[in-house]
Amino acid sequence: MLTLRESSEYCGIPKKYLKNYVFKAGELKATKIRGRWNISKRELEEWKRNRDLRLTRLSMEEYFKAFEFAVRVFYQSGAGTVEWGTTKRRDVGEFIANQTEGKLGELAFAKFMHDHFGIGIELSFLIEKEIPGQDIVKVIRTEDGTKIARNPKIKVSIKTTKMQNFNLWVVEEDIEKSDVFVLCRVELPSDQLLRIVRDHEQISPVRNLIPEPREIIAEVAGFTWGEELQARGATMEMTGANGKVVQVLKRPQFIMLSGELRKSKEDWESLANAL
pTM, whole model, 2 decimals? Predict the structure, then answer.
């Protein structure tokens, strides 16, 4: 048995991430022994081995591809620049980070499917006014030595969150748009925008304070078929310009914990075949 600290060190992840995965997501079981939480080393080794298979590393070239998409969305559509449930406009840095993170999740899924199942995934980089139900444009397979690109047979929605999070969250109006929902987790440094401008001449006085850009780590955490998602109650507070709640709305949210998602080899093979 390993303590939470020992377990996080063994897996190479922050302790707060592991606690979320254990106590909130149900990805691992912990047992309290003499007042301290412990995890079976055998179970932890299996969890780490499976997680490592789902991890992808995205290059700076892929980061800039996602970053360029985020900038285009900000200037060309204006969609999503208002925080959900409020009239407050999101800070440009937050908006760019969120959009970049979302596209990095899609790139991670495409890389995962290619590396493990030999399937090429062409993603959409079009600017949409509404959230699309399909994130995949083409599925590319090799048949008799020739690459064949076809339209996907099912609609796939790729949802992305931060690495420490554990919810696949789908709002009611999007639940019918897709056949399957994939959850990706991305470890995007909070100072990423500073890292990519550290070599600019005007930054030279503080350059040594800013870490160099590095590859982005992402995890394809799992997926669920649309019919498996169940509605769970949620309250949305509409906040006015004065910062006060002007209306309270209740509507179902479709949520699944990362520990409940499909993620076995057989599950991924079934999704690959369905594409």
Answer: 0.84
